[in-house]
Write a structure and sequence with these properties.
Blueprint lengths: L10 E3 L3 E2 L2 E2 L2 E2 L11 E3 L6 E2 L12 E3 L6 E2 L21 E2 L12 E3 L6 E2 L12 E4 L5 E2 L12 E4 L6 E4 L2 E4 L4 E4 L17 E2 L4
Parallel strand pairs: 1-5, 4-6, 5-7, 6-8, 8-9, 9-11, 10-12, 11-13, 12-14, 17-18
Antiparallel strand pairs: 2-3, 15-16, 16-17
Length: 203
Amino acid sequence: VITDCYVTEDNIVIPEKIEGITVTEIGDEAFKQTNCKSIDMPDSIVKIGNGAFEGAFELTNISFSSSLTEIGERAFYDIDTLTSVNLPDSLISIGNEAFYDCDALTNIKFPNSMEQVGDKAFFSCNAVVTAYISKGITRIGTDAFSSLNSLQSFDVDSSNTAYIAIDGVLFNKDKTELIVYPKEKRNLEYIVPEAVVKIYPYA
């Protein structure tokens, strides 16, 4: 586990082994408030800890491990320079507030391996235009996609058993709950489907 980072290089390459021991995890707050611009992770990394890159305000590029399964809470909290993330096909869960207030992110596309998106995971990512919900996601946390001021539509894989998008609006699969109506979906009028019995707060 990498627990701290004191280097000042712009581009950081995390080694697969340190003193013969395989690096499998980036620890909590390990790169918090560092001035690195890019991170290259070895494929041995399976977990990014809570707050691992929180406040790394110059970070623009992340090369994720192909074995990564978990991104912890607040891992990339409030990084305005991060324009895109290519999430690996191994990823299963993203923690609460993981990408909170990452204002430069433009699109969100989850791999089919994904199962859970935490509370406020992408809250206030104001440049996001589209969000793709893959087939494996069974839990989207409270306010995970709230306050996305540029969001125009959701796209949900037709094989997803928990969620569905109708005309770009996100619902649960049986269409009884309206979860998120994209802020930039500019309809003069919107008729909520008759089956809906619940509209989420801040939907």
